[in-house]
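Chain and conformation:
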Amino acid sequence: MRAEYTASKMPPFCLLEEPLLTFNPDDTSLDVNPLRGLDQYGAYSSLTFQNYTASLRIATMAPSGAWANLRSLVNTLRSAHTPSDRKEYVPMFRGFEKIFAVPLVAAQAEAHIRWADDLSSDGPPHVRLLHAMKDGMERLSLVRDQFDVLMVYLPDSWQSAFRAPGFDAHDALKALGASHGIPTQVINDRVFSFSSKASLAWRLSIALYVKAGGIPWKLAPLPGVPDNTAYIGLAYALRGNPKDAHYVTCCSQVFDADGGGMQFVAFEARDPVKDVDGARRNPFLSRSDMRAVLARSLSLYQSRNGGFLPRRLVVHKTTSFKAEELEGALDALSAVPEVECVEITSNPGWRGVWLKQSRDKDRPSEPDGYPVPRGTMLQHSGVSALVWVAGNAPRASSRGDYYQGGKSIPRPISLTRYAGIGPLELTAHEALALTKMDWNNDALYDPVPVTIRYSQRLARTIANVPSLPGNAYAYRLFM
């Protein structure tokens, strides 16, 4: 007996357009593929970046024996490379200066810190490494005007020093850099042995350019999104020993409508956590703390926009909005005409298979060779939907179909709107667009919107580094 597939009770789906990226302030240089756009048009800030620095100067902090490898790595970024992987997505890398219109150079001798190859001294390995990083940062802060980005090499042979109870070397380095206003690029042994030189050069070059203050691309205007829309991402972390944590740290960052203006607010909640176990499963803020953190985030937006308020503000987080959080959000944002509060979860337990017309006359359909198209949206209530941000993206490819990673059946993200009105397709399209704004890699998209990804990264850092002050920080300091 053949099942009648048209009797399915699943709701209808829609396909959202792949969001465009812009590579100039006039929004006339557009592409959906970030690497292809950079190759064809150059970086968004290429005309203004040279007013900031005539060359991108690299400082280094590494064991003495690594100097030849570091020099070779910088030469790799200066050179041209033909892609050997993801050929349908990755264009030829023509060299850093040809793409970003600024030369990549080594900083003056004073901006290079040479460690002993074995970090020999008394004490636990992680303590020795922390002292070495602190000393190096303090010395480099004295010559801060002589470099733009600090490249730090942590060899695999030092792995015993990378982690200890209450210590993570990567997070400690980022916190030290943030306290001195120094952006850092961490590299390890894999960088020197990575065989796909074009992909390595694209990935590392974009990161260095952003950390030096450049803007590689922004989001082109999304149809239906009002001007002066802003986005805030919230993430929480319990500081200290998980068995004895008392405070929730909230990380909020503010984005303009085009994905620019990325700054963090590290906020220490004032109200104590009454139920630590419950907060670990579903962290949340009190009404007063939510009001305080969003008011501070809104003030940060105004300081960058001549005192003007956004017309519309969208708040993302990965857990449900408690009633008191919604009340605090609406308290803080009462002067903003439109406010949306949206929960975004990345593992809703769903899968989807794209069906095409069957070649077998006895079957109505058969699975396609590629997954569900990126941008597929399945609305399952008036306030919730599934959105496939991972999936087939042929417009980003030079050869037709393209599925990033090429393996497994992609999961959708789940959107649930707790406050706000209007078409849910617009909320979903914004989330889809924000997956393309992670400047810390060369991929077409990230599995979650950048509002979620970036705030999670800072939350992890400040959870591991309690001494980091609760200030506002540029995201490039934590990339």
